[in-house]
């Protein structure tokens, strides 16, 4: 293949040079060393971008020439020191050095390969002071022995074990030479015996000096190629054999053939799916989520790997001889059912709880079987006839076991051999009921949140109109799933139950608009601003009371009441009749007092009445008041004590307010 390499020769010019693939003529049998040398000088070309030294200012000399001088030196010497200087170019010097090292390694590797071919021994004690030589020769010897062994056992020369590229190529070369009967010897580095004349006992090698073969030289000097290559028409070059194009590959359906140098590989075209990964051998392998810690099991659970997934089990450790089932229970391990019996030959394994025991041969039946009456063999136990195995479900006997055909809403647990309730609410969350799902044995039941009732379909929920039951003392507004109570003006909801409307005392809270000269009187749902003035001949004694001024003798004011008192009273129209609403009388009583009471004004329609009591009187409502009204009753009280008559007047302002359901009827006593 032709590349273009560029190298800056000086500050002013860039010299383009044509580069071609370097052809190293090997003089050794180690294919890995051959490939290593080729790659080394291809890298030199790529890195420096030149095949001649002329671009570096040195004398014109090709890399092949530089390499050849280093190689010759390496074949004749043990160390690559004091290399002959054939050029002042640093690139040429590097080529010499690398080719020399490759030649030394070639000789060491060839010696190791030949040792394996001769006697299979890989002992190189004659390299007493150089571990590098021992390791190199021994590695090639052992790798060659692997290739010879593979051929001897009629295995493929492409060893399917994890070897280095160098070792794999050495093993393949020895295997292929053995296949073609090409066992030949190369000159060893050092002879085990020496002669006084400095001679050696080396046998002639027809491949010695043959450098044109790109891969292997056989004993007669011919060139051969490794498996996966074919010899080109020039007789020494090897070309890769494309198994994918020729159809000689063994890739299966669903795999794609990819050609490689000297071989091919099959690549899977479809993914392995969730929970699996593709291995180097092109097969799908389960991912152990528990091992790589990609699971989501909590601290209280234990991860168990499954094919393509994992399970989380409660972290409950079972004792020796027990195993945890799918629901976290510890069940006994039947050691006797394993393929390899734990007992010696001639003994029978008997399972026990958490263990087992070995007994000399006798008929012992496993779980689900029992001895026949003769004690000669085991017969099935019909669990369905012995006890209530399925607890009300249908029992089906099986050989050595049984199963339960569970009713609807239950599922059979093959481990515990029981019918377990299906929690439909957990299996189908949010799909069965509109609001709340309550599991029941074998079924489920729907219920609704507060403020709703279950519809006729048993699944949906309908809003309840709570206002139909009048839960509020005044106004009720139904809302979705609930209701809200509201009050009329002048009322507010009770802060405790939020249902009862309570009167707002504007006079106490200061939210009235009465003037400074007026007094505020609270009524249900509002207030009144009241004021009073004492009539002539009277003075204001206290708030709401006027007293008569002293009169001259024989004056007409002596017939006026001694005191005029003002009172305020309020109640709703729903007050029960008759109802005492106001009590009155002297502050103190004396035996012999005579009290006379009369409503003298303000009750033209006779809604009120007054009755005498032991020490005074009481004003009562005697007729129903059907609508709000205001009254100003004038009540006269005559007290006759010791023959003297004293007159008192009570001005009672009565405010009848609208009926308020739910309010207390316990009116204050006066």
UniProtKB/TrEMBL annotation:
<dbReference type="InterPro" id="IPR026823">
    <property type="entry name" value="cEGF"/>
</dbReference>
<dbReference type="GO" id="GO:0016504">
    <property type="term" value="F:peptidase activator activity"/>
</dbReference>
<keyword id="KW-0964">Secreted</keyword>
<keyword id="KW-1015">Disulfide bond</keyword>
<dbReference type="Pfam" id="PF12662">
    <property type="entry name" value="cEGF"/>
</dbReference>
<keyword id="KW-0677">Repeat</keyword>
<dbReference type="InterPro" id="IPR009030">
    <property type="entry name" value="Growth_fac_rcpt_cys_sf"/>
</dbReference>
<dbReference type="InterPro" id="IPR017048">
    <property type="entry name" value="Fibulin-1"/>
</dbReference>
<keyword id="KW-0245">EGF-like domain</keyword>
<dbReference type="Pfam" id="PF22914">
    <property type="entry name" value="Fibulin_C"/>
</dbReference>
<dbReference type="GO" id="GO:0005576">
    <property type="term" value="C:extracellular region"/>
</dbReference>
<comment type="subunit">
    <text>Homomultimerizes and interacts with various extracellular matrix components.</text>
</comment>
<dbReference type="InterPro" id="IPR000152">
    <property type="entry name" value="EGF-type_Asp/Asn_hydroxyl_site"/>
</dbReference>
<dbReference type="InterPro" id="IPR049883">
    <property type="entry name" value="NOTCH1_EGF-like"/>
</dbReference>
<dbReference type="Pfam" id="PF07645">
    <property type="entry name" value="EGF_CA"/>
</dbReference>
<comment type="similarity">
    <text>Belongs to the fibulin family.</text>
</comment>
<dbReference type="InterPro" id="IPR000742">
    <property type="entry name" value="EGF"/>
</dbReference>
<keyword id="KW-0106">Calcium</keyword>
<dbReference type="InterPro" id="IPR000020">
    <property type="entry name" value="Anaphylatoxin/fibulin"/>
</dbReference>
<feature type="domain" description="EGF-like">
    <location>
        <begin position="463"/>
        <end position="502"/>
    </location>
</feature>
<keyword id="KW-0272">Extracellular matrix</keyword>
<keyword id="KW-0325">Glycoprotein</keyword>
<dbReference type="InterPro" id="IPR001881">
    <property type="entry name" value="EGF-like_Ca-bd_dom"/>
</dbReference>
<feature type="domain" description="EGF-like">
    <location>
        <begin position="380"/>
        <end position="420"/>
    </location>
</feature>
<keyword id="KW-0732">Signal</keyword>
<dbReference type="InterPro" id="IPR018097">
    <property type="entry name" value="EGF_Ca-bd_CS"/>
</dbReference>
<dbReference type="InterPro" id="IPR055088">
    <property type="entry name" value="Fibulin_C"/>
</dbReference>
<feature type="domain" description="EGF-like">
    <location>
        <begin position="421"/>
        <end position="462"/>
    </location>
</feature>
<comment type="function">
    <text>Incorporated into fibronectin-containing matrix fibers. May play a role in cell adhesion and migration along protein fibers within the extracellular matrix (ECM). Could be important for certain developmental processes and contribute to the supramolecular organization of ECM architecture, in particular to those of basement membranes.</text>
</comment>
<dbReference type="GO" id="GO:0005509">
    <property type="term" value="F:calcium ion binding"/>
</dbReference>
<dbReference type="InterPro" id="IPR052080">
    <property type="entry name" value="vWF_C/EGF_Fibrillin"/>
</dbReference>
<dbReference type="GO" id="GO:0030198">
    <property type="term" value="P:extracellular matrix organization"/>
</dbReference>
<protein>
    <recommendedName>
        <fullName>Fibulin-1</fullName>
    </recommendedName>
</protein>
């Amino acid at each position: 293949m032709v590349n273009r390499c560029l190298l800056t020769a000086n500050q002013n010019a860039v010299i383009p040079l044509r580069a071609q693939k370097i052809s190293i003529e090997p003089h050794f049998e180690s294919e890995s060393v051959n490939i290593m040398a080729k790659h080394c000088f291809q890298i030199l070309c790529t890195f420096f971008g030149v095949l001649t030294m002329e671009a570096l200012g040195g004398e014109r000399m090709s890399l092949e020439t530089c390499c050849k001088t280093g190689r010759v030196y390496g074949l004749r010497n043990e160390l690559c020191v004091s290399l002959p200087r054939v050029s002042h170019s640093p690139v040429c010097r590097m080529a010499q050095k690398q080719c020399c090292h490759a030649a030394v390694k070639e000789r060491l590797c060839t010696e190791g390969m030949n040792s394996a071919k001769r006697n299979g021994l890989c002992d190189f004690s004659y390299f007493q002071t150089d571990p590098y030589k021992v390791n190199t020769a021994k590695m090639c010897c052992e790798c060659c022995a692997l290739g010879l062994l593979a051929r001897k056992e009629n295995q493929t020369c492409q060893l399917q074990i994890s070897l280095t590229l160098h070792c794999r190529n050495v093993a393949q070369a020895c295997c292929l030479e053995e296949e073609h009967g090409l066992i030949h010897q190369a000159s060893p580095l050092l002879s085990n015996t020496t002669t006084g004349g400095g001679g050696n006992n080396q046998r002639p090698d027809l491949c010695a000096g043959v450098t044109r073969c790109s891969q292997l030289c056989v004993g007669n000097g011919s060139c051969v190629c490794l498996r996966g290559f074919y010899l080109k028409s020039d007789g020494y070059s090897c070309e890769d054999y494309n198994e994918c194009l020729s159809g000689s590959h063994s890739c299966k359906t669903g795999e794609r053939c990819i050609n490689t140098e000297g071989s091919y590989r099959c690549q899977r075209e479809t993914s392995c799916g969730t929970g699996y990964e593709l291995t180097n051998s092109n097969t799908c392998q389960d991912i152990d989520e528990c091992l790589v810690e990609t699971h989501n099991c909590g601290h209280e659970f234990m991860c168990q790997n499954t094919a393509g997934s994992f399970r989380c089990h409660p972290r409950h450790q079972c004792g020796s001889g027990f195993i945890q089932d799918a629901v976290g229970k510890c069940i006994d391990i039947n050691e006797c059912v394993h393929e390899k019996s734990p007992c010696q030959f001639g003994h029978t394994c008997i399972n026990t709880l958490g263990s087992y025991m070995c007994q000399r041969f006798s008929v012992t039946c496993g779980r689900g079987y029992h001895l026949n009456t003769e004690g000669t063999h085991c017969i099935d136990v019909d669990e369905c006839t012995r006890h209530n195995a399925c607890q009300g479900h249908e029992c089906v006997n099986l050989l050595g076991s049984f199963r339960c055909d569970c009713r609807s809403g239950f599922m059979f647990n093959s481990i515990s051999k029981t019918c377990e309730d299906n929690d439909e609410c957990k299996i189908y969350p949010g799909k069965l009921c509109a609001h709340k799902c309550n599991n029941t044995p074998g079924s489920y039941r729907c219920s609704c949140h507060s403020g709703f009732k279950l519809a006729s379909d048993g699944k949906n929920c309908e809003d309840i109109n709570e206002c139909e039951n009048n839960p509020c003392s005044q106004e009720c507004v139904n809302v979705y799933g609930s209701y809200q109570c509201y009050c009329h003006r002048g009322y507010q909801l009770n802060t405790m139950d939020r249902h009862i409307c309570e009167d707002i005392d504007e006079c106490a809270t200061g939210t009235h608009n009465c003037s400074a000269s007026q007094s505020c009187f609270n009524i249900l749902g509002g207030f009144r601003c009241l004021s009073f003035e004492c009539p002539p001949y009277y003075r204001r004694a206290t708030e709401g009371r006027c007293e008569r001024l002293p009169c001259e003798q024989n004056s007409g004011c002596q017939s006026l009441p001694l005191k005029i008192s003002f009172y305020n009273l309020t109640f709703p129209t729903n007050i029960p009749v008759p109802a005492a609403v106001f009590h009155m009388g002297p502050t103190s009583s004396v035996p012999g007092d005579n009290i006379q009471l009369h409503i003298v004004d303000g009750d033209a329609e006779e809604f009120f009445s007054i009755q005498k009591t032991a020490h005074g009187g009481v004003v009562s409502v005697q007729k129903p008041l059907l609508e709000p009204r205001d009254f100003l009753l004038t009540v006269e009280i005559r007290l006759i004590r010791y023959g003297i008559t004293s007159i008192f007047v009570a001005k009672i302002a009565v405010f009848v307010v609208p009926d308020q359901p739910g309010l207390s009827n316990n009116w204050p006593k006066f």
